[in-house]
Amino acid sequence: MKRNIKIKGIGTYLPKRLIKAEEIDQLLSTKSGWSKRKSGVKERYFVRDETASYMGAEAAKKAVQDAGLTLTDIDCLISGSGTIEQAIPCNAALLQEQLGLQYSGIPAFDINSTCLSFVTALDMISYAIVCGRYKNVLIISSEISSIGLNWDQDESSILFGDGAVAVVLSKSTDGSGIICSHMETYSAGAHLSEIRGGGTKIHPREYNEQTKDDFLFDMDGRAIFKLSFKLLPRFIETLFSTTNLTMEDIDMVIPHQASASAMKIIRKKLGVEESRFMNIIENYGNMIAASIPMALFEAIQQGRVKRGDKVLLLGTSAGLSIGGIVLEY
Amino acid sequence: MKRNIKIKGIGTYLPKRLIKAEEIDQLLSTKSGWSKRKSGVKERYFVRDETASYMGAEAAKKAVQDAGLTLTDIDCLISGSGTIEQAIPCNAALLQEQLGLQYSGIPAFDINSTCLSFVTALDMISYAIVCGRYKNVLIISSEISSIGLNWDQDESSILFGDGAVAVVLSKSTDGSGIICSHMETYSAGAHLSEIRGGGTKIHPREYNEQTKDDFLFDMDGRAIFKLSFKLLPRFIETLFSTTNLTMEDIDMVIPHQASASAMKIIRKKLGVEESRFMNIIENYGNMIAASIPMALFEAIQQGRVKRGDKVLLLGTSAGLSIGGIVLEY
Fold it and tell me: PANTHER family from the entry (chains A, B) (predicted)?
């Protein structure tokens, strides 16, 4: 049954430092052009002095304005990010503080499924909205990947960018809604992309020259792709199974911007032409959970997604998880 | 409107090391009896070699058995913990792996509102269950606080314990359900209890003799209590406002085991006698998000909560948040 919710507004924040592929080449002491050719990322943004909560709050203010609302209309605030700003408290509390809502009482909590955090937050909170619990929910995905990159690991370090996207979700009365959604997790891939340290297993006090890589992002892209690619066809089948939809009915696929090469193969596997497949990795890199809403934002800005369009949000994440939502925008 | 869900099963895991108050006194070089007198905690458990995912999986197996189900009946797995095992991926993926469900596809994600994570997870996922999305959801709260304690800060280090609790949540047909629930966050208190480091703001690479306290738990208990105490009466009023209930109708209050002294004052403020107020802090300490489900487990085990009873889960968390659920058990 369709869940009558609507992305009423959307806003973004891009960090101050624009990093061109040439700069990455220099950082890695490789030939100019190498990182662009390998990753497909021409430029991305890295934070200078911004915190994740600062970026998220800036994006949120724009989303609220875009929705034609004010911050006082918001009655729930969710962080849908794969990274944390500090160990305690949760991101959402820090975002609320940054928004100047310290005394508002607006409930604030985090939903985390790494790169799928935005999708999972949207999926889960939609039930609370249709049941009448919350009226206007802010979901904020604000990611700083640059601090955790391992510059000795080319494969991942050439790929990621920072930034924030926020949406306001409300009940809809005009047909907008979630038509179907689905998520699967295969922890057989739990260690294919990870940061092993920083939690209770390897505490920061254990940081030293020998352990330092445990505190940086570590990814086996080929293995992730192999597992995802194998799981994808049946996942799509299951996602659509409660509907009469096929991929032909989807006006725009908004994929996680995992990597340029993976996206190319996935698009072909889905049987979707380039015009129906948002690819923004060239200008943003992989922004963890902010990637999917950033691609949605770009699609809306460019007029490639309009109200009433059927949009497929689709991605994989560390875990390894696959998630998808068919949204009538 | 009542949400027809039911805690079908519950299970716990207690770490291998039982730590008596005398041991804490020695650690802090204080007189024997001091930490017990100050905190009200006689004993608590600390992990020896256990990971959070190991503890959580052990608790989950017992919860599933208690529900009369098998792991293959579970169709969603949520980590409701305030601590993380590693930075990436989320706890829930690691729990799924530890449960041997690597190839199951069971969707796994985290909900985090620090000490209220269990309550928020229960509250939010209940909507998805009543809407038919998931049938049998595992919520696992597994916490290792001991690794993050600052032994130079008596106030918090004498208070905390480790451990895990899991529940199986299903749709109910027998009257069990959530009668009402409510949450409020006041980030004016965001820095009253925190671990500043470990995320993107202060990366573990910045760990050194000068910064080390940033990676340990830091709490101003008096300020937290003051703020919580001020907010409590109106919170309870709002929580009950959609019902005809008063505190007199509650068979058992299951509070977060924040601290012995705070609980005593809160109990009196609520106007609830000792027999209707679960206090287990003496034997477990404050187990972060595992505290409330552990107190519920004890109440069930001791025959103090029976099917059909009205139970109030109530707590505060870093953030600062207040959350409550009235559950017909």
Answer: 3-OXOACYL-[ACYL-CARRIER-PROTEIN] SYNTHASE 3, BETA-KETOACYL-[ACYL-CARRIER-PROTEIN] SYNTHASE III
Interface touch B108/A103, C-beta < 8 Å:
no
Q: Does B197 touch chain A (CB under 8 A)?
A: yes
Asked whether the ipTM of the predicted complex exceeds the cut of 0.90, the reply is: yes
- Contact residues, chain A, for B88 at CB < 8 Å: 82-83, 114, 193-195, 217, 318
Q: Which runs of E-coded beta strand occur in chain A?
A: 5-13, 17-20, 43-46, 76-79, 108-112, 136-143, 163-171, 177-185, 193-194, 218-219, 252-255, 310-317, 321-328
A182 as an active site residue: the answer is no
Question: Cβ of B227 under 8 Å from any chain A Cβ?
Answer: no
Domains of chain B in start order, with CATH, are 5-173 (3.40.47.10), 178-328 (3.40.47.10)
Show pLDDT as tens, one digit a residue, over chain B (329 residues): 899 999 999 999 999 999 999 999 998 999 999 999 999 999 999 999 999 999 999 999 999 999 999 999 999 999 999 999 999 999 999 999 999 999 999 999 999 999 999 999 999 999 999 999 999 999 999 999 999 999 999 889 999 999 999 999 999 999 999 999 999 999 999 999 999 999 999 999 999 999 999 999 999 999 999 999 999 999 999 999 999 999 999 999 999 999 999 999 999 999 999 999 999 999 999 999 999 999 999 999 999 999 999 999 999 999 999 999 999 99
Cite the DSSP H helix spans in A131-181: 154-157
The answer to whether B205 contacts chain A (CB < 8 Å) is yes
Q: HSE-up of A66 (CA within 13 Å, CB side)?
A: 23
Q: Is the Cβ pair A187, B52 closer than 8 Å?
A: no
- Are the CB atoms for A253 and A278 separated by under 8 Å? yes
